[in-house]
Amino acid sequence: MRQPLQVTVFPYRMTPSGPEYAIFCRADDGCWQVVAGGVEDGEDLAAAALRESMEEAGLTGPMFKLDMVSGVPRTCFAAAANWPEDLYIVAKHHFAMEVGGGEQVVVSHEHSEFRWAAFNDAHTALRYDDDKTALWELDTRLDAGDLPRPGL
């Protein structure tokens, strides 16, 4: 069963012209987002982020937990029927993952395509404001050389 928690993962790679971020076009509604999904029973946040990265993009880590935490209305989730009635907002935790060493993104059935984008292009393409804020945090941390320690 799914816990009332959500994770996102921002895959990024370093290039000579600066960082690029993998963004994904959802197959069902065409919006651009990053890797996203729920936390299953028995998982912690980092394990869920790693599992979602493997399922949606074929990526295996390491994970960096960002400071950004936001929320999503419970009505966005079918699993809400199993959650406490007084829960209104599902916490959304954001992670980053460096892609390197020849690792390739493999798009799952949840997405129709992906692309690598510089910060401004990724920021403009992303649908959700909280994802844009998390992307800003990641880009700012990369510029400052201040990523948190890997979570996995």
Write a structural description.
The protein is of the alpha+beta class and 152 residues long. The protein has one domain: Alpha-Beta Complex (Nucleoside Triphosphate Pyrophosphohydrolase). It has 3 helices and 7 strands. Strands 1, 2, 3, 4, 5, 6 and 7 form a 7-stranded mixed β-sheet that branches. The radius of gyration is 15 Å and the shape is globular.
Descriptors for this entry?
single chain; 152 residues; Nucleoside Triphosphate Pyrophosphohydrolase; 7-stranded mixed β-sheet; 39% strand
Largest sheet: 7 strands, mixed
Report the β-strand fraction as a percent range. 35-45%
**Overall number of structural domains:** 1
**What's the multimeric state?**
single chain
What is the name of the CATH topology?
Answer: Nucleoside Triphosphate Pyrophosphohydrolase
- The secondary-structure class comes to alpha+beta
Order of helices and strands: EEEEHEEEHH
Q: Averaging pLDDT over every residue, what do you get?
A: 94
Helix content: 10-25%
Low-confidence stretches: none
Q: What's the architecture, going by CATH?
A: Alpha-Beta Complex
- The gyration radius over C-alpha positions equals 15 Å
Q: What is the distance, rounded to the nearest whole angstrom, between the alpha carbons of the first and last residues?
A: 23 Å
Number of strands: 7
Classified by CATH, the class is Alpha Beta
Given the C-alpha coordinates, what overall shape results?
globular
CATH homologous superfamily identity? Nucleoside Triphosphate Pyrophosphohydrolase
Number of helices: 3
